[in-house]
Amino acid sequence: MLWSNLIDCVAEFAEELESWQFVARPSQQSPAGEDWIIWLLLAGRGFGKTRALVEFVLEKVATRAALRVALVAPTAADARDVLVEGPSGILACSPRWCRPTYEPSKRRLTWPWGAIATLYSADEPERLRGPQHDLAAVDELGSWRHPAAWDNLMFGLRLGQRPLCAVATTPRPTRLIRDLVSREGADVVVTRGTSYENRDNLAPQFFDTITKKYEGTRLGRQELMGELLFDVPGALWMRDQLDELRRSQAPELRRIVVAIDPSGTGGEEADECGIVAAGVDEDGKCWVLADASGRYQPTEWAKRAIDLYYRVKADRIVAETNFGGQMVEATIRAIDLNVAYRAVTASRGRPLTQGIASRENHGAGSENEKFANSWIDLHPNFPSIKRGGDKSAPGLILPIKCFKLSQALRSPLSRSVFGINYSRPLQLHRLGV
User: What pLDDT is recorded for position 432?
Assistant: First the structure.
């Protein structure tokens, strides 16, 4: 009996020495204070993100600060294999006195005092519509394919006095991650780290082969150093480039057009309709004035384009007719018979300047060259183009906007549209918020 008790005491003492508070690095500890809601852990591969995330959950559950927990990963298999059954998962990291009962068929972990953690897949965002929680643990947010999963998770984070969310992910400049980083210092605490910080716990071969191969490369900066890289090689327009060219006010413009790339359907899953206004001044400089792009029904995008036409006092509307043909003009005319209108046909596969090639640029490369040479400026009412979107590479304008911008820039300068003749290279400017 005494020998058995002694063994139990030794086991408990060894377990205590291996507890998270003794082995965790400072960068793996959850933030102090109560002025944050989301803890965003941006770090390279092998940093120990999953362990930090799991230990954060165990701490909150053990102290009864959380009773309803959402464990969300990119897929159902990821939630099970990484957050629950993995080497740094909840089952492996839970001490004996705090070990939950796992019911795979119910996607549920239950602790003796009634706390429950439920597994969710970000590929099934509707599963998160309805359930409510006081704690959320999010794995690899940068790999989520459906932003609606994050929205539904946030709507359900409404139990308790102080519901919290912890996010562990390799940095990828998706819209969700960019939004969270922009809130740093407000309700988000960001912790950054590299793969090298956890070198003592990783296989030597990992650093002898893998890291040496990718050190100094762009992929290595993201996956090893944990850097959040906004610009991608091949992007037609870079964010810094757009910001540098912003102006506070436009001069008198001699020609203005509103360019449209219409969509045939509306709703959240529909393609975006590009609506961009641009003009040229007396010195031959082009100014990108406004962006009214969005997901609209046909009559709605026509109304928005016409409203923009009158708001910027445009000379005409230019619309791409590859999709819709004469129906595009008919939709516009059904709302206003008096607007000046011209149809254009998009060309695809044309050579791009500066050696840039893209399957989705729709011939916008020449406009990229004009941007690079400071020939284009953006108006303050043109903010959304710099944000891009989920369907584009980071740093690249949405392809739909990219095309309409190129059409808008070409149209006020086209002899066939306005009969303008220039004796020197075109200069383009933008006004920016």
Answer: 40
User: Quick one: pLDDT at residue 418?
Assistant: 37
Q: Rounded distance, CA 396 to CA 393, Å? A: 5
Task: Look at residue 286 in the predicted model and tell me its pLDDT.
Answer: 81
CATH superfamily of 18-223: P-loop containing nucleotide triphosphate hydrolases (3.40.50.300)
Residues of the chain with CATH 3.30.420.10: 239-430
Instruction: State how far the alpha carbon of 80 is from the alpha carbons of 67, 83, 91, 104, 122, in Å.
Output: 20, 6, 11, 8, 13
Dihedral Cα 276, 282, 283, 288, nearest 10 deg: -10
Residue 313 and residue 252: Cα distance in Å, rounded? 11
Question: In whole angstroms, how far apart are CA 23 and each of 200, 239, 335?
Answer: 12, 40, 68
Q: Which residues pair with 190 in a beta bridge?
A: 40
> In the predicted model, what is the mean pLDDT of residues 83-96?
94
Torsion from C-alpha of 287, 291, 292, 298, nearest 10 degrees = 80
Determine contact, residues 382/290, Cβ cutoff 8 Å.
yes
If one compares 12 and 336, the residue with the highest pLDDT of the two is 336
Per DSSP, 172 falls in state -
Rounded CA-CA distance 257/234 in Å is 28
| Burial (CB count <10 Å: 0-12, 13-18, 19+), residue 423 | exposed
Tell me, what's the pLDDT at 192? 93
**Per-residue model confidence (pLDDT) at position 4:** 54
CA distances from 119 to 75, 79, 137, 402 (A): 10, 6, 10, 39
82-86, 146-150, 203-207, 424-428: segment of lowest average pLDDT: 424-428
Q: How far is CA 109 from the centre of its chain?
A: 31
DSSP 285: E
In the chain, % of residues over pLDDT 90: 36
User: Does pLDDT of 373 surpass 80?
Assistant: no
CATH code at 239-430? 3.30.420.10
How far apart CA 120 and CA 71 sit, in angstroms, is 6
Task: Report the C-alpha gap between 135 and 158 in whole angstroms.
Answer: 9
Region of 425 (left: φ > 0; alpha: ψ -120 to 50; beta: rest) is beta
- Positions of E strands within 8-122: 38-43, 68-73, 101-103, 108-110, 116-121
Is residue 128 pLDDT above 80, yes or no?
Answer: yes
The segment(s) of the chain belonging to CATH 3.40.50.300 are 18-223
